[in-house]
Amino acid sequence: MPLNSVGGIEIEKEAVSKAPIDVGKAIVTTAGTLPCKYVIHAPTMKQPAMRIGVENVKLATKAAFALGVKLNLKSIAIPGMGTGVGGVPINDATRAIVKIAKEFEDKFEKIILIDRNDEMIKSFHQFLK
């Protein structure tokens, strides 16, 4: 389910107005109707639907966390990234995301690793053990 169908079209409109966003950079938008303050957008691809390597996942994850720090967020939710059309194997993406989350854990009261894909969620659980 696309973010704009859950949080409202204003999220997409605001993000598009700030495009393009380079891999390794992140921008923030309002959260629309989502129950949070902001949505951080950190792309893993230069162009839609392109295959990527795990390095792009690392760059996007670091950018999202760094922006969260800059915004003085107390909590942040990070989804699995790059494993869909990007083609990064789930365990590789998970390993990268968890490693970076641990580097930022002292900057937030709560870090939530989240996804809609059950395999990604299981992978997060495995790597957090």
Q: Uncertain segments of ≥5 residues (pLDDT<50)?
A: none
Q: How much helical structure, as a percent, in the residues?
A: 40-55%
Tell me how many strands there are.
Answer: 4
Describe the global form.
Answer: globular
Strand line-up of the largest beta sheet: 1-2
Query: Mean pLDDT, rounded to whole units?
Result: 94
Second rung of CATH, namely the architecture: 3-Layer(aba) Sandwich
What would the CATH topology be? Leucine Aminopeptidase, subunit E, domain 1
**N to C succession of SSEs:** HHEEHEHEH
Main sheet, how many strands, which sense, barrel? Answer: 2 strands, antiparallel
Strand-residue fraction? 5-15%
- Provide the number of structural domains: 1
Q: What is the CATH superfamily label?
A: Leucine Aminopeptidase, subunit E, domain 1
SS-derived structural category = alpha+beta
Discrete helix count: 5
**Separation, N- and C-terminal Cα atoms:** 29 Å
C-alpha-based Rg, rounded: 14 Å
Regarding CATH, which class?
Alpha Beta
Account of the protein in words:
- The protein has 129 residues and is of the alpha+beta class.
- It has a single domain, classed as Leucine Aminopeptidase, subunit E, domain 1 (3-Layer(aba) Sandwich).
- The chain contains five helices and four strands.
- It has helices at residues 3-7, 9-17, 54-70, 90-104, 118-128, and strands spanning 27-30, 38-41, 75-79, 110-114.
- Helix 3 packs parallel to helix 4 and helix 4 (90-104) crosses helix 5 (118-128).
